[in-house]
Amino acid sequence: MTGIVEWKAAGVDEAGRGPLCGPVYAAAVILDPARPIDGLNDSKKLSEKKREALAPLIRERALAWAVGVATVEEIDRLNILHATMLAMRRAVEGLQVPPDEVLIDGNRVPPGLIVPARAIIGGDALEQAISAASILAKTCRDREMLALAVLYPQYGIARHKGYPTREHLTALREHGPSPIHRRSFAPVVQSWLDFGTSD
Question: Rounded mean pLDDT of the chain?
């Protein structure tokens, strides 16, 4: 028995706004106060090992959780901000338990939500539900990037997860962008120009 929860707040956070390739992920989590989870924090402040240990606990103990994704094509069509908002809305809409309120990490609320919502700057370190969402979004996206690394091994994605590291930028210049690269991002555009004139 989990008891009666009078007010259900869903925490929402994203992962993958900054990388040059791959989709952007968002997660929404409603925690169960009767089943607390120790160690929740902003996913960026946790080691990969700790995130991977917490993720199954969140899925097991939360009242509800869901993950939303916006594809590379949607990122390029809408821009990364609007694609992130779309992924967040999809995560909230995927919850099996309707929340009374949605708490968004950051300074913007996704348009189109049908429940009250508020943005909290630094919320992933202040609200445990947002911390849990941060961990789910990050671990889900990391798994996706590891799968994509197998398909596109020449970019070193398993190591940098798509972020614009020196290794990634060098690989882009050498190989040109792949189908999973975000063509609307300036370093990807530049790499295509460099690749096209490298001969």
Answer: 93
